[in-house]
Design brief:
There is one protein chain. This protein is mainly α. It has a single domain, classed as Fumarate Reductase Cytochrome B subunit. 66% of the residues lie in helices and 2% in strands. The protein is built from four helices and two strands. Strands 1-2 form a two-stranded antiparallel ribbon. A hairpin with a 3-residue loop joins strand 1 and strand 2. The structure holds protoporphyrin IX containing FE. Protoporphyrin IX containing FE binds next to helix 1, helix 2, helix 3 and helix 4.
Length: 186
Amino acid sequence: MRFRNSAEGYGIIAQAFHWIVAALVFVQIGMGLYAADLPVSLARLQWLSRHKSLGLGILALVLLRFAWRSLNPPPALPDSMPRWERRAAVATHRLFYVLLILAPLAGWFHASAAGLSVNWFGLMQVPDLVSKDRELAELFKLTHRVLVGLLALLLVGHIGAALHHAFLRRDGVMHRMLPWRPRRNV
Ligand code: HEM
């Protein structure tokens, strides 16, 4: 088990960041859709409160992940991949970071402007980013939705590409992000 990335694959820390953030983002999207659909009620406020807390947790994890990645460059993509595909993969990964930082930030701006301050899992009060303003709240609500929609689209493309590498190309690209070794080096 290696902690740092190497030319052959990702280290255990980068893998842990990848799979934990991925799982939390799925939970977060489901929770956001569920909470936003509830009628105005105590249950809605409670689900939104969990959503906001988890969203800030994801933001913190993504910033840590970005710092770790800056210190640990990822392994290069294989030469067997056409150049345009390697460029598309790099662009996708960068866009993931941009969206995983901007989407929660927009949610935080929305919550602040809507007067729904965040109390992080009931443990501490998080400062508001702007003061209460109904028009701004609507603007950030829309921005949050658009950014999350783009994130969901990117996720679909990313998962499709990963499965393509794993089952059709069998070029080992997917295995670099898995903590276990493939039975056969495909
Ligand atoms: C990666 C992080 C996040 C993801 C993937 C995410 C996803 C979502 C989704 C899918 C919705 C439902 C959109 C709709 O149909 O209206 C939503 C709503 C919402 N999110 Fe997030 N969110 C994230 C982070 C945050 C953060 C950090 C906050 C605040 C601190 C936040 C605050 C809200 C609020 C207040 C709503 C309800 C909007 C409404 O009133 O309809 N979100 N989010």
